[in-house]
Amino acid sequence: xxxxxxxxxxxxxxxxxxxxxxxxxxxxxxxxxxxxxxxxxxxxxxxxxxxxxxxxxxxxxxxxxxxxxxxxxxxxxxxxxxxxxxxxxxxxxxxxxxxxxxxxxxxxxxxxxxxxxxxxxxxxxxxxxxxxxxxxxxxxxxxxxxxxxxxxxxxxxxxxxxxxxxxxxxxxxxxxxxxxxxxxxxxxxxxxxxxxxxxxxxxxxxxxxxxxxxxxxxxxxxxxxxxxxxxxxxxxxxxxxxxxxxxxxxxxxxxxxxxxxxxxxxxxxxxxxxxxxxxxxxxxxxxxxxxxxxxxxxxxxxxxxxxxxxxxxxxxxxxxxxxxxxxxxxxxxxxxxxxxxxxxxxxxxxxxxxxxxxxxxxxxxxxxxxxxxxxxxxxxxxx
Length: 383
Known about the structure:
- By secondary structure, the protein is an alpha/beta fold.
- It is about 35% helix and about 25% strand.
- The longest helix is centred in the first third of the chain and has 16 residues, at about 60-75.
- Pfam families: MR_MLE_C, MR_MLE_N.
- Keywords: Lyase.
């Protein structure tokens, strides 16, 4: 069995009542976004296919897929995923590896279709549903999630829905005082019934601000503190100083595209307590699995960045991962969770848990009518 063709369908989404501030997603009743997406199809000569639906960083992902497709993917045995992964990882070593994840996820989907088994089964996964936390859009100034009471109300609604945890993203205009006030309100309203997390998303520009917020989280018993520094967590000395100063576990490496190798370096230097990994951005299921197992060898947890069926399957097989991230959520708008798929594969069940799809491969179907209706480009690579 050989890969004969790679096909890329580009399209756009429609996200009503949503805007951005400094590139951060917020509720905005007067704005509709149309971000780009794509479906990558890897096809063999006998017609077996695997798919990946992309929803973030579409332009660089497509560009990098095209960089490696002919030389490192077309003509290969699609079941040799690790060999293909290694060749693509090296080939894209200068360009942050954005193209590796889509290729790898599509190959896992293809393998599951070939064997008639779910990706979870191929990974040895043993869970059919996952504990899930609600992950919100950023703080807005538009009447949505615009302050402590709004966040506390939404957290209580998420608790009633069954979510076991709640995470919010800070004010995009860099307002540590507002973020701390929201933390206080959340702890007061639901802190004894939900795990709480803050994702500063690399907003804080000074060490003093990051330390002030971190001390507030210590006092409120937050589960983790995520990526406070404006440099994206690259300055390991600064992060280590903060890790040493605070009791709240630091979740890092979301914005560092060095995969399992960089994670090992950061864990060895004790510059993070918990590790972020992403099948979308860090080399697919293969890359994220490598990172998770690296973290496990250090006795450390790994948390997967945002959702998607690939993460549901992967998390089903991980011992050291506590929550599926369901986001980005807002009571007044809908994000791009399910657009491009048939049905609603990313929706919590009656217990607030995320089901793991049980069909062959990723167990989800592309909504080709949606893709064709919103098509913005199409190309084929191979024979």
